[in-house]
């Protein structure tokens, strides 16, 4: 059975077509500059990330997501280069949706009620939910009769106890506006929790782990009994760790102070915190390879940014260690930085020997594919690298809902 996974943005659309019998990616791609005027670009990959990968680039006007997806269908079914003969071979379509609020706590088959809930959550996810809903409606138009399934980024965090997700604001604010910690990167954290349990050979219901999803956007999750017990992101993806362009957690009083002194509107302040802060704001770079290069060249701002990033990770790590009572099966690194940056991993684990964490520096500094252990054999807490795969998690969740 084949599942098409769609992640629709306001001006872009990422997709993957997977053969679920073997969990193989047949094709993937990214459509860009949708609705921006002029010429859009579609990068389509056949058998991606294999020795047989073939890339096709097409430029065309994409007034809406419909035109972009019509070109995707054309490439998927191309007589010479296509991976399927007809779009009717697609069994189901799984959609990444940012926010389900408190109304949706699990993966669901899309119906009119689900679409209305996604609309109701527009204020909670103004940049993503409208685009995600658009992707669903385009799929309904172009694939009539094919079931659509919504997989929510907030799903994993909905298992948190109330004392974890509530803020210290008046309770009526929560009741009226649903202001609470939701957590994001949930699809990744859920996938990693499942894979960590499998790797350790224990039931997921007994898993106690701390996952570090480190990339341009970064978050951490505290996993107890296989479920999310706490998470670093909050009402929005801005809370928590320092990230590529996001400031992470700051004193809330900073916000009105800067707005008053700089004469900023709420929108301008939001842009400052989300797009002009973090590593970019501190040293001018967002790619950790550039940051490390600048550190080697003696750039003090880059050195400061690196130290601040690591410190924010270690502070959260310490909090989760105590929330789990010191009983931790594994620390897990994933996503772009987590999987590839041996310097950050070493800095995060440095000084944790008394807590039972002993990093194998040689193994940590080696690039290898797949899940692996980078701690020493005598480390009481295993340190793992497990590559994330959000698209596969969405496809698996889609199949489970329709089973």
TrEMBL record:
CDD domains named among the record's database cross-references: ASKHA_NBD_AcK_PK (cd24010)
Identify which cofactors the protein needs according to its UniProt entry. Mg(2+); Mn(2+)
Q: Which UniProt keywords apply?
A: ATP-binding, Cytoplasm, Kinase, Magnesium, Metal-binding, Nucleotide-binding, Transferase
Please name the catalytic residues of this protein: 153
Q: Cross-referenced Gene3D superfamilies, in alphabetical order?
A: 3.30.420.40
The record lists ATP as bound by: 14, 213-217, 287-289, 336-340
Biological process annotations from GO: acetate metabolic process; acetyl-CoA biosynthetic process
Which amino acid positions bind Mg(2+), per UniProt? 7, 390
Give the metabolic or biological pathway.
Metabolic intermediate biosynthesis; acetyl-CoA biosynthesis; acetyl-CoA from acetate: step 1/2
Function, as annotated, reads: Catalyzes the formation of acetyl phosphate from acetate and ATP. Can also catalyze the reverse reaction.
Identify this protein by name: Acetate kinase
Recorded name of the encoding gene: ackA
């Amino acid at each position: 059975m084949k599942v098409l996974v769609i992640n629709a943005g306001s001006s872009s659309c990422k997709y993957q077509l997977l053969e679920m019998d073997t969990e193989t990616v047949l094709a993937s791609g990214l459509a860009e500059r949708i609705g921006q005027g002029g010429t859009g670009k579609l990068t389509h990959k056949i058998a991606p990330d294999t020795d047989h990968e073939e890339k096709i680039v097409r430029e065309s006007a994409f007034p809406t997501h419909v035109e972009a997806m019509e070109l995707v269908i054309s490439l998927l079914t191309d007589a010479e280069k296509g991976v399927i003969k007809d779009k009717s071979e697609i069994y189901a379509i799984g959609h990444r949706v940012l926010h389900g609020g408190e109304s949706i706590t699990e993966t669901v088959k899309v119906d009119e009620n689900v679409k209305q809930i996604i609309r109701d959550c527009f204020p909670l996810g103004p940049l993503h939910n409208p685009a995600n809903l658009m992707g669903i409606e385009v799929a309904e138009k172009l694939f009539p009769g094919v079931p659509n399934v919504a997989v929510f980024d907030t799903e994993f965090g909905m298992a948190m106890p109330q004392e974890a997700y509530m803020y210290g604001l008046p309770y009526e604010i929560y009741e009226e506006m649903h202001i609470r910690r939701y957590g994001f990167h949930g699809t990744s954290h859920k996938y990693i929790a499942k894979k960590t349990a499998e790797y350790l050979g224990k039931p997921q219901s007994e898993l106690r782990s701390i996952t570090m999803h480190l990339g341009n956007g970064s978050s951490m999750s505290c996993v107890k009994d296989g479920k999310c017990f706490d998470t670093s992101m909050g009402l929005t993806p801005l809370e928590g760790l320092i990230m590529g362009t996001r400031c992470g957690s700051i004193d809330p009083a900073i916000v009105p102070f800067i707005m008053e002194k700089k004469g900023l509107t709420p929108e301008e302040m939001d842009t400052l915190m989300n797009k002009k802060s973090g590593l970019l704001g501190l040293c001018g770079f967002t790619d950790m390879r550039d940051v490390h290069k600048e550190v080697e060249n003696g750039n003090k701002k880059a050195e400061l940014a690196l130290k601040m990033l690591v410190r924010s990770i270690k502070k959260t790590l310490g909090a989760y260690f105590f929330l789990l009572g010191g009983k931790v099966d594994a620390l897990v690194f994933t996503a772009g930085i987590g999987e590839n940056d041996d310097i950050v991993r070493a800095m995060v684990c440095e000084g944790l020997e008394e807590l039972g964490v002993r990093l194998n520096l040689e193994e940590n500094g080696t690039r290898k594919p797949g899940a692996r252990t980078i701690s020493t054999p005598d480390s009481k807490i295993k340190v793992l690298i497990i590559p994330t795969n959000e698209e596969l998690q969405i496809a698996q969740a889609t199949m489970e809902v329709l089973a």
